[in-house]
Structures are given as C-alpha cells and as structure tokens.
C-alpha cells in the first residue's frame, strides 16, 4: 500500500481539529472563537484555551495563541497537537499556509496545512492527502489533554472488568 493511500485512509478517521480566527470590521473585541464565524468557520476548529490572537485584515495573516502546547486524543483513535502559536492566512471559508497544528497518522505526525469550507463540509489537507467532514462536527471546542472525553479537565476513565460478562 502506498504512503499516499495510507495517509488518505488514516485522514478519513480525523474529526475536530484545526485552527484560526477572524475579524469583523465592526467588532475587534470578540474572542477568536466568536470571530471565526465572521469567516464562515465553526468555533470548534480551535481547542479551548485560546488566550489571544492577532489578525492583519488587509492580508488575512493571523496568529492564535494558546497558554502552552495542547494535545489530545479523539475517541482514542488519533491524536492532535497544537503548538502554543498557530499561524496562517484566513479568508472567507479558507485557512491556508497553516503552521502549528499536526495530526498523527499511523506512526507519523503530519501538519494540517489547509482547511477549506464548501457548503456544510470542511476539507482538511495535509498536503498530499485530504479528507472532508461535516461542519456540524466542529460546533464544540475540544479540551487540551482530554479532547471531548473530559470530566473535570481529565480524561474520563471507564471502569470495566474484562473478565466479567454483562449477560
């Protein structure tokens, strides 16, 4: 199986990730989450914990700042990492030249370099491969350390005994 095929198959397992900001000409006081909507993106592209951002409205160049690095696993199947600073260019429905977000595909960490919105779908690209996901998957922001499986900021642990049957 080729590396491209492996990346494509692995990328299909991805859901909530990635970056960004926005700005509205009338409102520069909102959070990065609030402002994402101005560029037609859901807030869940960013994890919880963004402490600030910069945006040059003329070029679309942005930086989003987290209070440190952020990583988490989603549904135990893949891992995401955000650096403390995420950079790129944003325009209506498009994030490009992204730096600071990576996803683990099989044994390799690859950078998410672009996110494009087309209707109700978001296409995530790692350069040589891409995958589409419904925008609805990104309504909620994941939490650093535990993603969506959190209880009081910690990964929820299921207590099960593999030697005991429920039947």
Walkthrough of the structure:
With 167 residues, the protein is mainly beta. The chain has one domain (3-155): at5g01610, DUF538 DOMAIN, CATH 2.30.240. The protein has 2 helices and 11 strands. It has helices at 3-11, 32-36; strands spanning 50-55, 61-66, 70-74, 78-91, 94-105, 108-111, 114-118, 121-125, 130-134, 150-151, 154-155. The strands form 2 sheets. Strands 1, 2, 3, 4, 5, 6, 7, 8 and 9 form a 9-stranded antiparallel β-sheet that branches. The protein is globular. Residues 1-23 form the signal peptide. InterPro entries: At5g01610-like (IPR036758), DUF538 (IPR007493). Keywords: Signal.
List keywords for this structure.
mainly beta, 8% helix, at5g01610, DUF538 DOMAIN, nine-stranded antiparallel sheet, 167 residues, disordered N terminus, 11 strands, disordered C terminus, 40% strand
Helix and strand layout, with pairings?
Elements: H1 3-11, H2 32-36, E1 50-55, E2 61-66, E3 70-74, E4 78-91, E5 94-105, E6 108-111, E7 114-118, E8 121-125, E9 130-134, E10 150-151, E11 154-155
Antiparallel strand pairs: 1-2, 2-4, 3-4, 4-5, 5-6, 5-7, 7-8, 8-9, 10-11
């Amino acid at each position: 199986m080729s590396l491209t095929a492996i990346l494509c198959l692995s990328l299909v397992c991805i859901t909530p990730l990635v970056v960004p900001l926005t700005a509205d000409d009338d409102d520069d006081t909102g959070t990065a989450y609030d402002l994402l909507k101005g560029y037609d993106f859901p807030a869940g592209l960013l994890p919880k914990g963004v402490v600030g951002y910069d945006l040059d409205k003329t070029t679309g160049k942005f930086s989003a700042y987290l209070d440190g690095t952020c990583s988490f696993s989603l549904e135990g199947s893949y891992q995401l990492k955000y650096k403390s600073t995420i950079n790129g260019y944003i325009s209506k429905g498009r994030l490009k030249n992204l730096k600071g977000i990576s996803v683990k595909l099989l044994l390799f960490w690859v950078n998410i370099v672009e996110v494009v919105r087309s209707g109700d779908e978001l296409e995530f690209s790692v350069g040589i491969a891409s995958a589409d996901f419904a925008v609805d998957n990104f309504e909620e922001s994941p939490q650093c350390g535990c993603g969506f499986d959190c209880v009081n900021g910690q990964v929820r642990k299921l207590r099960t005994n593999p030697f005991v049957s429920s039947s």
